[in-house]
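S.,

Sequence below, as promised.
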Amino acid sequence: MKFLTKNLTVVFWSAIFGEIIGYIVGQLESQTYSSTSIAVVTVITALILVNCVTLISGNANK
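The prediction came back faster than expected:
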């Protein structure tokens, strides 16, 4: 249950921060803003990073 809760929290916050950063970068670079693609990319990247760090650091405690 802890694993699921952690990943849902990562999905929620990475989508929010990704949208904010994507909007700001889109305005600075004068590019179109696609909220769906930004959310998908940031969520997948965040899930991969968080789970890799958990896997690596979990083995360090043994």
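The mean pLDDT is 90.

Coffee later?
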